[in-house]
Design goal:
By secondary structure, this protein is α+β, with helices and mostly antiparallel strands. It contains eleven helices and 21 strands. Strands 6-10-11-18-17-16-13-12 form an eight-stranded mixed β-sheet, sandwiched between helices. The protein has a five-stranded mixed barrel with strand order 1-2-3-5-4. α3 (126-147) crosses α5, α3 (126-147) packs across α11 and α7 crosses α8 (302-316). The longest helix is centred in the first third of the chain and has 22 residues, at 126-147. It is elongated, with a radius of gyration of 26 Å. The structure holds aspartyl-adenosine-5'-monophosphate. Aspartyl-adenosine-5'-monophosphate (AMO) binds at residues 165, 185, 187, 208, 210, 217-218, 221, 223, 356-361, 400-404, 406-407, 418.
């Protein structure tokens, strides 16, 4: 008999099927055993008499009859909670050792280090799987949103010769006899690609040598990057970012409804138009609301990001807010200074639920200005030669943005720690095992 996926049993009531999967929970009632069987597609309760003893996570193959459950035994929490399988035969394919924790609990309730120490197992819990499913949907829908706007995906390199974003947060790579870096952003490459396809995006790993352990920083991040030409203003870039994040929310709502429900999450509230404030305006608002005076700081502190989101929700009905116009000197060399106030630039962040989800902005497209900026920012122009070529030989006014996929997932679900938003988080203290 051919294997049936659990999700496909509903039309087979009254028929015999062969199912394979993992035992999730076992309940022994003397002669009768109840077990929940899980495969890649779903979960179903199975019942058998005088079965061989099985432990949670043991991989089995069964044959049995698909039956409707009696009305009062229907489990409304399960997608297939109105069905059960009456087991006629059971074969063990791979026996599982005794689990180090009870995986059958509604909530795992493990401390984060334990959750990660047993990552191969904890990810099998329905709520952990739900997080990873949402993360996948975030990435898929980012792609879909941009393809619908004629963006072309490209593959950015991971080994780069120069640091585009500035700062010391890079991993050096000994590359034969040369010094190179793990890419902290595909920034320069996506800009080059605007000269090729006009509208491009990439889904890449980026690497940040974050020297601190926080609830929102990883050292390896899935970066969702976009870049496009022929813009009239930086606001066109913010608009595209807004369209993209709203598309992602709609897709998660539509395609991960079960997961959202299981996690008790609710999608962020966004207004028709996400509010936009300049950094200095945001700092003024924060000062007025809290008395905290950060009005001369060059960026928002974490508590400022939380406060400006509170303001956006209370005053504008949006859990997301754009903050623009950071001091030109505090942002990377390629960011476009505002002609009306050149000490501030046309770069912006999108803050969601109190955390930065995205950075973007208009870029300098004029070759001479770009070279002058690179020098002023102490970027070695010889090492970014192919980048500069793209600008010397015709580049339209352009801009772009990058979301951190884990930050979006963390925000949508309301996870306390970003490490839960990804399968194999890397940080200063962990590369799979604790360092
Ligand atoms: P930035 O450095 O702000 O911008 O990164 C873009 C987005 O990536 C995510 N992110 C991180 N997430 C988790 N852990 C980290 N250590 C981490 N670092 C970054 C954040 C952040 O908003 N080149 C620009 C983008 C652009 O202008 O297009 C850049 O790299 O969500």
């Amino acid at each position: 008999m051919e294997r049936t996926f659990i999700k496909d049993i509903a039309p087979k009531v009254g028929e015999k099927v062969r199912l394979s999967g993992w035992v999730y929970v076992v309940r022994d009632h003397g002669k009768i055993t109840f077990l929940d069987l899980v495969d890649g597609s779903g979960m179903v309760q199975c019942i058998g008499e005088n079965l061989e003893k099985v432990t949670p996570q043991t991989v089995i193959e069964i044959e049995g009859l698909v039956k409707k459950r009696p009305e009062k035994l229907i489990n409304p929490k399960l997608a297939l909670g109105d069905l059960e399988i009456e087991i006629s035969s059971l074969k063990i394919l791979s026996k599982a050792s005794e689990m180090p924790f009870d995986i059958g609990k509604e909530d795992l309730d493990l401390e984060l280090p334990t959750l990660l120490d047993y990552r191969a197992l904890t990810m099998r819990h329905p709520k952990q799987k739900a997080i990873l499913k949402i993360q996948t949907e975030v990435v898929d829908s980012f792609r879909e949103a941009l393809k619908a706007k004629d963006f072309v995906e490209f593959q950015a390199p991971s080994i780069i010769p120069e640091v585009p974003e500035g700062g010391a947060q890079v991993f050096e790579v000994k590359y034969f006899d040369h010094k190179t870096y793990l890419a902290q952003s595909p920034q320069l490459y996506k800009q080059i690609m605007v000269g090729v396809f006009e509208r491009v995006f990439s889904v890449n790993k980026i690497f940040r040598a974050e020297p601190s352990v926080t609830t929102r920083h990883l050292t390896e991040v899935v970066s969702l990057d976009a870049e496009f030409g022929f813009i009239d203003s930086w606001l066109d870039v913010a608009e595209m970012a807004e369209y993209t994040i709203k598309y992602i929310f709609e897709s998660v709502k539509k395609n991960c409804a079960e997961e959202i429900k299981l996690l008790g999450a609710s999608l962020p509230v966004v207004s028709d138009k996400i509010p936009v404030v300049k950094l200095r305006e945001a700092q003024e608002i924060i000062f007025k609301r809290t008395g905290v005076d950060h009005r001369t700081e060059k960026d928002l502190a974490p508590e400022d990001e939380r406060e400006i989101c509170k303001w956006a929700m209370e005053e504008k009905g949006s859990e997301l807010v754009f903050v623009s116009h950071f001091p030109t000197k505090s942002r990377p060399f390629y960011t476009y200074p505002d002609p009306d106030e050149p000490e501030f630039n046309q770069g912006f962040d999108l803050i969601g639920k109190g955390v930065e989800w995205l950075t973007g902005g208009r870029r300098i497209e004029n070759y001479e200005t770009l070279v002058a900026h690179a020098k002023e920012w102490k970027v070695d122009t010889k090492k970014i030669d192919i980048y500069l070529q793209a600008f010397k030989y015709g580049m339209p006014p352009e801009g772009g943005f990058a979301f951190g996929a884990e930050r979006i997932t963390q925000g949508i679900i309301g996870l306390k720690n970003i490490r839960e938003a990804t399968a194999f988080p890397r940080d200063m203290e962990r590369v799979d095992t604790r360092l």
